[in-house]
Amino acid sequence: MARKGSKRQNIDRPAIEARLADARKFLEAAEMFVEDDTVSAWKVAGSNAVNAGIAASDVICGIVLGEYSRSGNHNDAVALLVEATQPDAALRKHLNALLADKSSYQYGTAGVRHAAARALVEHAAKLVAESERRAKR
Q: What DSSP string runs through the chain?
């Protein structure tokens, strides 16, 4: 149950499944656009990778804890993912990598490079794969 006054939201199985579908579609788009050879395509790829990773994190937290972060502060989402996946730190590292580049890919073009966009897609793919694995349990 979400704590009173917290920035956490309860989530049920249908909402988890919908969020998983979001993660898959965002990742699909990211994988498609990262193969293009333009900065604008890499920006779309990176932005979709970030969204895929956030959605996948919501799924993992929803499955394990029954809630996900509704905070505007991404550190809260990372903390919740840590809580859901302790002692494994790998998923936190993937989400942190995505969130570190979120602004570049969603709000500008500074630092948008093909290799960096590809790395974001790889981070997102690992989070989505783990969310799918946990959803099958």
A: -PPTTSSEEE--HHHHHHHHHHHHHHHHHHHHHTTSSSHHHHHHHHHHHHHHHHHHHHHHHHHHHSEEE--S-HHHHHHHHHHHHTT--HHHHHHHHHHHTHHHHHH--TT--HHHHHHHHHHHHHHHHHHHHHHT-
